[in-house]
Amino acid sequence: MQAANKKNNVVHINSPSLRLVPAPRDPAEEWLRSIHGAVSPNTERALRTDLGLYRSWCREQRLRPWPVRATVLGRYIDSMAALKAPATVRRQVASLVSLCRAMGWKNPQKSATVTAALMRMNRQKGRRQTQALGLTWSIRERMMAAFGDRLLHVRNRALLAVAYDALLRRSELVALQVSDFVMESDGSATLLVRRSKTDQEAEGAILFLAGDTVALVLRWLKRSGITCGFLFRSLGKNESVGGKLDPSQVPRIYKYMAREAGFGEEVVAGLSGHSARVGAAQDMIASGIEMPAILQAGRWKSIAMVQRYGERVLARRSGTAQLARLQNRLPDPA
To answer: Against a cut of 0.70, is the pTM above it?
Structure first.
């Protein structure tokens, strides 16, 4: 029964109880909660972003997002291909496929609709990804020589040297602890990388640091007064030592060092948090170091990424290059 209050124009519901309608179940959110802590924070962040973008797009198109249907995913790929890099779209598809597998849904990627959408994108934009500029030895040395004796300069030199010797990703570099750095009797050192992108269960890896890099690290520790905790720290405006260095600061440090060394903006723009890793791999290939040793240094399980990093160096060793050398058709170095 309803009783109307004419004065206040309010309708009262004479009901013993009012039941709240529960919010619709969101399988994506449930899955993300279930894998929290089982995957790296970066992976979880990427999955949440990818699934959220797909959900929002479906709502804008007035389409039901879950379960993921091949026809809808095909339209989504076509829409995203016009806005984002192919590698980003492929990652988004992979995130959605991971959700489908976890929920027991049919894999939409196997459908002709999704296959055709990905082929359209690849034909229009190509599959090639932009590669970070390799921070090779010649670039590294020029960047090292461009600095003075400020604490900032001491830290940056040590950071770059460690990243190059150990072929570190930016997340690995900022996670290093002072205790991970162990001196050897010959002046070199070993470095424990506790966890990495390809080692989420933290089995760890022991890597080598050359004597000149060790000297730079020791100088940084002495000047900064750091004795434990994170090896590389942020610095305040007055060069006060702060907390853990954020991963986003690593490419900024490389770019800053490159500008100070007089490199043009084309070089600066090409540097990323992977540049020291790429450059060291390129130098190893150019120096004729055997592939198993390169794989061990970079902790790669296959040669695919090494070949991609070193494709320009490897091109100079191709059959065509060797034939041109035998025919004396190479340009005079002078």
So the answer is: yes
